Amino acid sequence: MKTLIVLFVVFAYCVSAGAGQKYNPFEDRYETVPDNWEVKYNPYEGDFSYQPEDAEATYNPYEGNWDWDSGHNPNERCPNENHSKSSIEGII
User: Fold this and answer.
1) Domain edges within the chain
2) Helical segments of 1-92, H only
């Protein structure tokens, strides 16, 4: 009986984990994001994604693409613009 209760609790937790997901109709998929994020369009890359209200698309010269400056993709932007690419690769 205890096993059934534990399984039910685990199942309920897994089902509730999807409660924070929002549907992105432009890309036909669900994304797990905070409630105050909204779908934004990145005109440089031609894609839609959930981002914070104040996010802006900025150019990443190291990757050669435009990405969000919101911290949503923190590994794709340089934390300090004074670093060269080679010094960042040495840190990573």
Assistant:
1) 19-91
2) 2-17, 85-91
